[in-house]
Amino acid sequence: MSEPHDEPPAAAKGPPTAATSVADAGEEAGAGRRSRLERLGLALVALAMAVIFGLLAVAAWVGGEVFLAVMAGSGALMTVWAAGSNLRRG
Fold first, then answer.
1. Less packed terminus of the chain by CB within 10 Å, N or C?
2. How far apart are CA 60 and CA 36, in angstroms?
3. Distant-in-sequence, close-in-space partners of 72: CB < 8 Å, separation ≥ 6
4. Would you put residue 30 in left (φ > 0), alpha (ψ -120 to 50) or beta?
5. Using CA atoms, how far apart are residues 37 and 85, in angstroms rounded to an integer?
6. Residues 63-74 pLDDT 10s
7. What b/e readout covers 59-72, taking b as 16+ CB neighbours within 10 angstroms?
8. 18: which DSSP letter?
9. What share of the chain is helix, strand, coil (3-state, %, to 5)?
10. What is the pTM of this model?
11. pLDDT confidence tier of residue 51, bands split at 50, 70 and 90
12. d(Cα 47, Cα 18) in Å, to the nearest integer?
């Protein structure tokens, strides 16, 4: 008969090791650097999203929603930054 204290609780087992992380699993499966075409496509998608955020910022500003305009504007800037870093780091 098994006692309830036979197995340690999940917190006592410790954090997952580096071998079980998602990033390592992707590298082991052969996911290397992205091709130039894939990076360009991802950057274009990010730029399209940045345009949407920018339009939302303008519409919110015109409508008098200053907080929403600032948040959408910062979202647009961060998305443009993500697109640029995607192209730069390869």
1. N
2. 36
3. 53, 54, 56, 57, 60
4. left
5. 15
6. 999 999 999 999
7. ebeeeeeeeebeeb
8. G
9. 70, 0, 30
10. 0.60
11. very high
12. 34
Residue 37's nearest CA partner among 80, 70, 86 is 86
First to last CA, the chain: 57
Q: How far apart are alpha carbons 75 and 10 in whole angstroms?
A: 37
The CA-CA-CA angle for residues 54, 82, 72, to 5°, reads 25
Which DSSP symbol is given to 33?
Answer: P
Determine the residue type at 81: W
Q: Is 19 exposed, middle or buried (0-12, 13-18, 19+ CB in 10 A)?
A: exposed
Question: Which residue type occupies 14?
Answer: G
Could you tell me which residues come within 8 angstroms of residue 56 by beta carbon, excluding any fewer than 6 positions away? 68, 72
Tokens encoding 4: 């309830």
